[in-house]
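Course assignment 3, question 2. Fill in each field.
Student: A.L.
Task: Predict the tertiary structure for the chain below.
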Amino acid sequence: MLDVAPRTVQSVTGASVQLAELTRDFGPVRAVDSLSLDVDAGRFLALLGPSGSGKTTALHLIAGLLAPTSGSIRIGGVACEDVPADRRNVGIVFQNYALFPHLTVAQNLAFPLEMRGVPRPEITQRVTDVLRLVDLEGMEERRPRQLSGGQQQRVALARVLIYRPQVVLMDEPLGALDRNLRQQMQLEIKRLHEELGLTIVYVTHDQSEALAMADQIAVIDHGRIVQSGPPRQLYDRPVSQFVATFLGEANLLPGTISSVDAASGVAYARFLPGLGSTGTLAGGLRVGTPVTVVVRPEDMLVSPAPNGTEGWTARVAATAFAGDAFRIQLTDGQGRRLLAKMPVTTAAPPAVGSEVVIGWPDHRATFVVDVHSKAHAEVN
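Answer field:
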């Protein structure tokens, strides 16, 4: 059990970060494309996207390791596009830890303070405080090779925290750790964020990591933010197929808006003859608008299909026990492959080869349109 009680260290207040029309070109390649984003002071933002999406480039622009081609960066309300990296009061934690192998833990931690001319007595006290903060007391004289991967990651984090930056940038810092240790460090970083009031911008391609840690997620693709907001909002109400499938698993059913009740704002989308889903309008959709109905696997309802059953039926193609759920692979009459998750409290999953009736509660589905369209509607 992690100790989440407040520690006796100096409180750190984070600074806001604003990016406006930020662009960075590498020759003919545009890595970051007119990216705009506001991060309030003290927030934990996850920049989530696939490899090559521009998220690390955006992080390096905030840090001052790269200069923007155009656009502006403000930290704490102060423009800093022309401010050198060492004057931005920003710390960065890399995936490879970047510890000095020939220095002890205490010497690694003291280094950034020595470069800033901090008096020796204060350095000694800060090293003691930050080791207590990251639960590494008693390891001052060890060298990096004598530490586990998780301990090395804590030293790397402590080396940033020791000079009290207002903004901490993290570039996939847990990627080299095994699953259990990664989950432990997720809780540790989240605790430090809440305890110190830091502003954290955290780059990751791992959607479960972003959902577990951040209070705001910005999904980035081809250098642009495609959706941002609280984790639950993005998971439950994605605005595109890309967001729906990148931020978790999803069943995608192509449909068409077949009726609209303007008075109540309710629309109906048909995805199979006689079958569809209702939803409230959020983007002024009209009859005939093609949409995709998005349903998360855990929201799929699966029940036995007695002989002669009418409705949407499917056949069970495979089942698997996943620890926290049964994963049920389904194939419907049109050859469409679907995924359902059933709780482990279920007595037994349906047998492979059996026929089942499938569906979902209307309020647990979402309508999305093509990623290039701004209009979308959400089932409510």
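Instructor remarks: Confidence is low (pLDDT under 50) at residues 1-12, 371-380. DSSP finds eight helices and 20 strands in the chain.
Grade: pending
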